[in-house]
Design goal:
seven-stranded mixed sheet; Quinone Oxidoreductase, Chain A, domain 1; Rossmann fold; 30% helix; 12 helices; alpha/beta
């Protein structure tokens, strides 16, 4: 099958278009013919080698972390899907590879595609929506009336998180640039801070939850926005000891992550705030709940551009500019 892959880790290196063997199937797997694949900053970080300590992939590696397509085969133990089903998923982190014509995934990580979305729209959803769900529902347990700040509201995670937080009944603030103010307001943001003209740390206060996807400066300034007992959740790091333990990392990696996060954990504790790092995981059950929200009109996809399969490198480069509104998608079929 045709696929875009890396042969070695290299910052900003081009993906190689080549032939890969069909992925091997297990009894609990479904084989999916890929129609569309979402592009994420995570793809660039994996290519650059940023995660090689915690995600020891075998090279060559087919990239891609979001998929929508059609089931063509099911494993012997699979009962919930059949050939012909239209599905979407974020594959497990050790089985990525959606920049290709086919992928095999554990059926537990897969959900039926929302009936009201195209394949391209569906491929834009899984990773970002699951990130928002795991941060706001699972980790933060956001309740009606709570105040939530979502950084980078016009990005892939931000556009999903604003809509989900509003559905949960939260009062939502977000940061974005001047050009994207109307977009984030249309998604439900109650307060929009234009980071080009205002400092969110002086404008906002008394928040229960902050979801951070930006750098160290924004992460630390976010502490000033939170009230005692608040939760600071970061998807951009630094990873903490709890993350290391949950993933079964060895003693050395646990100590490295303890050291990397010691500063923000210490500053958070001083203010009575809980810091945690979130690295989202594949979950078909959660994705099915998100499907129900999409079909009910509660959440809608926000897409910037669709690239043809042969332009996968251009799609990745465009995502790396940081200017995309919502998601960038590759039309594979």
């Amino acid at each position: 099958m045709k696929s875009f892959m890396i042969d070695r880790y290299k910052k900003s290196g081009a993906l190689r278009l080549g032939e890969s063997p069909l992925p091997a199937m297990k009894d609990n797997d479904v084989m999916v013919e890929i129609h569309a694949a979402g592009v994420n900053p995570l793809d660039s970080k994996i290519r650059d080698g940023e995660f090689k300590l915690i995600l020891p992939y075998r090279l060559p590696l087919v990239l891609g972390n979001d998929v929508a397509g059609v089931v063509v085969r099911v494993g012997a133990k699979v009962r919930q899907f059949k050939p012909g089903d239209e599905v979407y998923a974020r594959p497990a982190q050790d089985r990525i590879g959606t920049f290709a014509e086919y992928i095999a995934m554990d059926a537990a990580d897969v959900a039926l595609k929302p009936a009201n979305l195209t394949m391209e729209e569906a491929a834009s959803i899984p990773l970002t929506a699951l990130t928002a769900w795991q941060a706001l529902v699972e980790r933060a347990n956001v309740q009606k009336g709570q105040k939530v700040l979502i950084h980078a509201g016009s990005g892939g995670v931000g556009t999903m998180a604003i809509q989900l937080a509003k559905h949960l009944g939260a009062y939502v603030a977000t940061t974005t640039s001047t050009a994207n103010i109307d977009l984030v307001k249309s998604l439900g943001a109650d307060v929009v801070v234009d980071y080009k003209t205002d400092d969110f740390a002086t404008v906002l206060q008394g928040y229960d939850v902050v979801l951070n996807s930006l750098g160290k400066d924004t992460l630390e300034k976010s502490l000033a926005v939170l009230k005692p007992g608040g939760k600071l959740i970061s998807i951009s790091g630094p990873p903490d000891p709890d993350f290391a333990k949950e993933n079964g990392f060895g003693w050395l990696l646990q100590q490295i992550m303890r050291l990397l996060s010691s500063g923000i954990r210490r500053k958070s504790k001083r203010r009575g705030i809980r810091y945690s790092f979130l690295f989202m995981t594949a979950n078909g059950g959660q994705l099915a709940k998100i499907t129900a929200l999409i079909e009910a009109g509660v959440i809608r996809p926000v897409m910037d551009r669709i690239f043809p399969f042969e332009k996968t490198n251009e799609a990745l480069a465009y995502v790396e500019t940081g200017r995309a509104k919502g998601k960038v998608v590759i039309a594979v079929k």
